[in-house]
Amino acid sequence: MRIYPCTLEEYRDLIAVSLGRKPPDVWLKNAAYLNVYTGQVERGHIYVSGNRIAYVGDKEFAASPNTQIIELEQRQIVVPGYIEPHAHPCQMYNPFTWGVSQLRQGAVLSINDNLSLLMLLGERAISFIEELDRISSHMFLWWCNFDQVQAGDRHLLKTWLAHPLVIQGGEFTEWFQLLQGDEELLERLYLLKSARLRVEGHLPGVSYEKISGIAAAGIGADHESLNAEDVLKRLKLGLYASLRYSSIRPDLPDILAGLAGDPRFNLNRVMLTSDGPSPHFTEEHSIPAMIKLCMEAGLSAVEAYRLATLNPATYYGLYEDLGGIAPGRLASFNVLDSLNEPAPLHVMQQGTWRIWNREDMQPADEAAIASWLHTYFRPPRVPAELVPEQIREQGSTGIELVNDVITKPYEFIAGEPLEDEESFITLLDSKGNWTLHTRIKGFASGVTALASTYSASGDTLLIGRSEKGICDILQELNERGDGILVYFINGEKLHIPLPLGGTMSAGNMKEISESLGLFAFRMKQHGYRFRDPAYTLLFLTASHLPNIRMSAKGLYLVKNGHVIASPVRLDTR
């Protein structure tokens, strides 16, 4: 499959350049390059016609005065552009900013989650991804959520499935409903398979037998392996396995140690993903960082690079366009200082140098991009106010944090004073219609109040040591605008503006990374014990993670769906 088909004229020129009958647009003269097909570092001429590679080999063709001739240094090497196979482009950064950051790190293409776009934009999400495709130098393809937002909208689902920028369904979080016989979900999954799309799983801690049933349904890959044994389960059952190195699951080094030298692990069916890192982890968990970790763990250089190039291109059927340095492929590749340093010095994207000496050749007009983003992502929240009397405990079951994202229920005595590790937590509907209230344990004892519009459900999270503190911080958030606002016990305040849909910054990656880095640092200073507080805020309302969550249906147990407490309408309090 070709992402960007040639016009007839481009096709004709490509063949003419490949045969030496027409001069190339770009000539990398006698360059060292990694041949991922043979596993060798080779040296030869690389000729580019338009946006594609026309020729790779020893023969020297005539150039023209318009040919850009590049002679790299002897130590430098050309490698295929990297592919991020599993991205979440709305993690406080916006999709455009995500693409800029990825291209700087040599990732020429990412496969992206459309769930946030569906929640924020609805049917306008299609026009957004089309405009993004036109203005971004990074290439975006998308997966189509089919088990959450689009559950009741078969027409919208079919529209996404037919779109040329959509190549996958997923990530499939509600698989347990399928195994329990959910007919509607089965039919939607059948639509995906009939459209000949890949389906990505979400299978953390799932048994071999259940993965077998899910594989039978057509799920082709999964990114939730927690150890080498999990990887082997997936490979045995015919799935591809993406090894994850994310800000909340930095498992890659341990997984690599577990599979090193074991012949059962077919690395041709393994990929690498950062799974949507927080902004301040985007470099630490970049594809270059992952490739380097693989080499340090004992994988050969070619094995490590294949995990981020040829393997995802093969899995997604994009091998005619990407994955290697060969004729007919898109001229999307990286120039490295050496094979041991995967972070690129130069990046060519579709025949144009976008990064040179690690600097953007054509930096975006940030003000214009921000203006464009604001036309799509408007504040979805209806500002509402609360008074302490409206915040009343509902039962005696609270949420205890096990780590950044995993929770468990615990019991407290309603009406009793908070313990040192406890805070009140309220979920306020984005339309201001209802609230849900309980306690949270193990969050951050030095935080007197926190308000966040950044949540998986799009509702506002309010956490505080007193009902009055919750009301006060909500009022200030209404005045400042959407984002994250924190009051610390020492009187310090911290505000992170997220004006795009209440969940994303309009700034560049450096700006949002510095803000989130400071937020994480301050939170840890004030009692937060885990790695990434932003993900804790995001996932307290996520329906696919164990064990107890808050949502529009109430405080409930994920495993069996039991509702412990229901939301209360504000006009009834």
From TrEMBL:
Listed EC numbers: 3.5.4.2
Pfam family, one: Adenine_deam_C
Domain Adenine deaminase C-terminal: 424-560
Catalytic activity: adenine + H2O + H(+) = hypoxanthine + NH4(+)
Enzyme class, first EC level, given as a word: hydrolase
Domain Amidohydrolase-related residues, every copy: 165-345
Residues annotated as signal peptide: none
Top-level taxon: Bacteria
Gene Ontology terms for molecular function: adenine deaminase activity
Keywords, ordered alphabetically: Hydrolase
Record family assignment: Belongs to the metallo-dependent hydrolases superfamily. Adenine deaminase family.
PANTHER family the record matches: ADENINE DEAMINASE YERA-RELATED, N-ACETYLGLUCOSAMINE-6-PHOSPHATE DEACETYLASE
The protein, known as: adenine deaminase
Annotated source species: Paenibacillus woosongensis
